[in-house]
Structures are given as structure tokens and as C-alpha cells.
Design a protein that fits this description.
Domain Extradiol ring-cleavage dioxygenase class III enzyme subunit B: 34-243
GO molecular function: ferrous iron binding; oxidoreductase activity, acting on single donors with incorporation of molecular oxygen, incorporation of two atoms of oxygen; zinc ion binding
CATH architecture: 3-Layer(aba) Sandwich
Strand order of the largest sheet: 5-2-6-1-10-7
Helix content: 25-40%
InterPro entries: Extradiol_dOase_DODA, Xdiol_dOase_suB
Strand content: 15-25%
Radius of gyration: 18 Å
Largest sheet: 6 strands, mixed
Cofactor: Zn(2+)
Protein name: 4,5-DOPA dioxygenase extradiol
Length: 267
């Protein structure tokens, strides 16, 4: 006998949907505290897989798997300090191979080795896992069709048993063109508040069918989502759930710049 202590199996991870915020999220003491407390309650992931609203590419594309790829500072109009942020998380080539293996044989997979994490991925991660010591992989949104994204989430579900934190990163409302007060503490416009309340009710009732049909059923549309890429990652998270119709734990609510920052985790 070697006397070596066997490595325990990885802890099964939940899957998350979070409203990721713009780079100034890190200046919000309340929001930063909420994200940090959330991360502290989670088991430590072996790796993190992010699907962000800020990367649409078909076929499904896997980003850089190497350590040291520069971040994508895909924004403008903010102070220069936000463009100097780094997040040197380890690459995740093993996870990239697992993701590709989980997809149907007739579905193409592309690779974009020079693309780093965009702000939908790294902004919340700098708060939740500031040491940047967990491998992170980002994949693209290959479609905005909620049904197809739900199926993608189902494909990714086995990763959770290997300790991978599957994270859909978007925003529960994202009607930027219709905001009249851009201050962080602005009151929520009616369309944002009504859409958020509707989404909270659908989540509480496990009403996946209602959420899938949000463009037709939700109040506040199309103002809450004039384009739908920020709601789309939610369906990857729901698909990755053990039971998408089981009500998720809604961890964060409230508003920032009038936009709903509702975020949840599924078992």
C-alpha cells in the first residue's frame, strides 16, 4: 500500500444564471457583497464554464483554452481603469474537450483560440473568484432560440457532476435604449419592474413553458429586451438543471440603473 490518501470525487455543482452588470458593477458595494456571499456559499468549482450574452457565434465556438489570453474589453464610455482590468485564470483545455464530446455528432464545433473572456464573464468572476485560480472556459451562444438553448443546457448537465460550475451570464432586463436615468440607484421603469415581477413569478412556479414564450407573454416587452441576447443565457442554465421545472433559488433581486439584476441557481 502506498499510503496515499485517495482524492475525493468532485462535489456536484449547481448551475447559475446571473445578471452580470457593466464594468462599474465593481463600484456597487451592495452588488459586490451579494456576489461574494453567493460564491462563498457554493462548493469550490473544479472549473467554470460561462455562456455570456456578449458572444453570439454559430456554430458553437469554444474560446481560448490557454492561460494568459487577454480579456475582451468589449465596452466604451467608462473610465480608463476598467480597460486595465486583468483576470489571468488558468486555461481549461480538458473542459473544452469534454464540452465538444457532449455535443451531438452532427453539430459542428468551432474553436477561436485567440478570444479571451468578455465582460459578461470576467466582471462577475473578478468579484466571486478574485484570485483567478480556477480554470475558466467560455463558449458562444450558438443561437438565440430558447428551445435550442434549453437543449444545449441539457447536454452540458453532466459537467456539474465533475465539479464544473455552469454559468449563464446575462441581465434579467436590458432595455438600455429606453433608460432615462443612467444613475446606479435609478428607479426601475415600469417595463423593467413588470417584466422582472413576471419572471420572478414564472421562476417560482417552475413555469419553463412561460419563460420560453417570454417575447409573447411577458409584460414590458419589447422594452425590457429590445434584443434578446441578455435573456437567452437563462435557458442554458435552466436546461442544465436536474429538473428545469423545479423552482430555482432566486439569490439576488433588485435593480441597477433601473435594470433587473435578478439572479438564481438551479439544483
Amino acid at each position: 500500500m502506498s499510503g496515499q490518501v485517495p482524492t475525493p470525487p468532485p462535489t456536484r455543482m449547481p448551475a447559475l444564471f446571473l445578471s452580470h452588470g457593466a464594468p462599474p458593477l465593481v463600484d456597487s458595494e451592495l452588488w459586490v457583497g451579494q456576489l461574494r456571499e453567493w460564491a462563498a456559499r457554493l462548493p469550490r468549482p473544479t472549473a467554470i464554464l460561462v455562456v455570456s450574452a456578449h458572444w453570439e457565434s454559430a456554430p458553437l465556438t469554444i474560446a481560448s483554452t490557454t492561460t494568459g489570453t487577454p480579456l475582451v474589453h468589449d465596452f466604451g464610455g467608462f473610465p480608463e481603469r476598467f480597460s486595465r482590468v486583468t483576470y489571468p485564470s488558468p486555461g481549461a483545455p480538458e473542459l473544452a474537450a469534454e464540452v465538444a464530446a457532449l455535443l451531438p455528432g452532427d453539430e459542428s464545433v468551432a474553436h477561436q483560440p485567440n478570444r479571451g473572456l468578455d465582460h459578461g464573464a470576467y466582471v462577475p468572476l473578478t468579484v466571486m473568484y478574485p484570485d483567478a485560480d480556477i480554470p475558466v472556459l467560455q463558449i458562444s451562444l450558438p443561437t438565440l432560440d430558447p428551445e435550442r438553448l434549453l437543449r444545449l443546457g441539457r447536454r452540458l448537465r453532466p459537467l456539474r457532476d465533475r465539479g464544473v460550475l455552469v454559468m449563464g451570464s446575462g441581465f434579467t432586463t436590458h432595455g438600455l435604449p429606453f433608460l432615462r436615468d443612467p444613475s446606479p440607484d435609478a428607479a426601475a421603469p415600469t417595463w423593467s419592474a413588470e417584466f422582472d415581477a413576471w419572471a420572478a413569478e414564472r421562476l417560482s412556479g417552475g413555469d419553463v413553458d412561460g419563460l420560453l414564450d417570454f417575447r409573447a407573454r411577458a409584460p414590458g416587452m419589447p422594452y425590457a429586451h429590445p434584443t434578446i441576447e441578455h435573456f437567452a443565457p437563462m435557458f442554458v442554465t435552466l436546461g442544465a438543471s436536474s429538473d428545469p421545472e423545479h423552482p430555482p433559488q432566486q439569490v439576488i433581486d433588485g435593480f441597477w440603473m433601473g435594470l433587473a439584476k435578478r439572479s438564481f441557481q438551479v439544483a
